Amino acid sequence: MTAPRWRLVLNGKSAGDDALRAAVAAMRARGITLDVRVTWEGGDAERYVAEAIQEGVDVIIAAGGDGTLSEVATTLAHREEAADALPSLGLVPMGTANDFATAAALPTQPLSAFELIQARPPHLVDLLRLDAHGTPHWAANLASGGFGTQVTIETHEGLKKLLGGLAYFITGISKLGRIEPISARIEGPEFSWEGAFIALGIGNGRQAGGGQALCPDARIDDGLLDLTIVPELSGEVAATFGTMLTEGKHAALDRVAIRAQLPRIEIEAPQPFVLNLDGEPVTSTRFHIECVPRRLRMHLPADCPMLGDS
């Protein structure tokens, strides 16, 4: 029987992690052929994935945060092969916030993450594809705009390393007094909204920006995007943030959010604004976003909350 062949694509920021090194050694001792490739600059993940496919690797594992996951998933999604003809995808969460992994209930320890990949067959999952200026961009997790996006972009890398997900909260608090609404028209099948928003979430996954659950009901295998619009709050700001303090941020979001589930979404704005795709900022006045169903096979827990049969 041929030993399983795995390829670990590791974000260079985590290359010295002792727990990951020990987990790699443990899986090799169990008969897994596990090779490691470390990303250093743009294009590395694409090259490593192409190499792995050419060499007949069974599983490609992204080791890093949401950006690393999307970088590997994007490279697989660009391929002409169908999902069943591509290596399956695994994730070892090693980022600052690990939003996708948290929402999917993936193990946080490297060895447990490897054991999940070994034990669980892959599940077909959707991806999010965004087109702006004729250029396609892919994401495994979530596209966000407005307040949460600015928090993510403006949080200093040194603060992330020191405080982890708490860094996003500190940056967010510092911005509360200067939230600038974004005007836009947002449309989809049997859905239309126009106005000013302070936060926007378009979810294949559920959360971004260090725990902001903008799309709390999103599933990654239903062929739909979960849209959440938080409109300009005007006089409701005090009441909303009072709710946040007494009942929690999810209750505050539920109080003001406009939500829909759509296979595709069109956004048009009078001024350019930024959508953040798992760490990749894309600036435009027009966005076309769609769900690409069953594009990849991914190893997930049996009780993953984001699966339709969970």
What features would you describe in this structure?
- The protein has 310 residues and is of the alpha+beta class.
- The chain has helices spanning 18-29, 44-54, 66-77, 99-104, 110-119, 147-154, 157-163, 166-175, 237-247, 249-256; strands spanning 5-11, 33-39, 59-64, 88-93, 123-132, 135-139, 142-146, 182-188, 191-203, 225-231, 258-262, 264-277, 280-298.
- It folds into 2 domains: 5-125, Rossmann fold (3-Layer(aba) Sandwich); 131-294, Tumour Suppressor Smad4 (Sandwich), CATH 2.60.200.
- It is 31% helix and 36% strand.
- Helix 6 packs across helix 8 and helix 9 packs antiparallel against helix 10 (249-256).
- The model is unreliable at 151-156 and 158-176 (pLDDT under 50).
Question: What key attributes describe this structure?
Answer:
310 residues, alpha+beta, Rossmann fold, Tumour Suppressor Smad4, 2 domains, 9-stranded antiparallel β-sheet, elongated
Topology summary:
Blueprint: E1 5-11, H1 18-29, E2 33-39, H2 44-54, E3 59-64, H3 66-77, E4 88-93, H4 99-104, H5 110-119, E5 123-132, E6 135-139, E7 142-146, H6 147-154, H7 157-163, H8 166-175, E8 182-188, E9 191-203, E10 225-231, H9 237-247, H10 249-256, E11 258-262, E12 264-277, E13 280-298
Parallel strand pairs: 1-2, 1-3, 3-4
Antiparallel strand pairs: 5-6, 5-13, 7-9, 7-12, 8-9, 8-12, 9-10, 10-11, 12-13
Helix pairs in contact: 1-5, 2-3, 6-8, 9-10
Point out poorly predicted stretches. Answer: 151-156, 158-176
- Cα-atom Rg, whole angstroms? 19 Å
Strand content: 35-45%
Into which percent range does the helicity of residues fall?
Answer: 25-40%
Seen as an oligomer or otherwise, the chain set is single chain
Largest sheet: 9 strands, antiparallel
How many β-strand runs?
13
Q: Under the CATH scheme, which class of the largest domain?
A: Mainly Beta
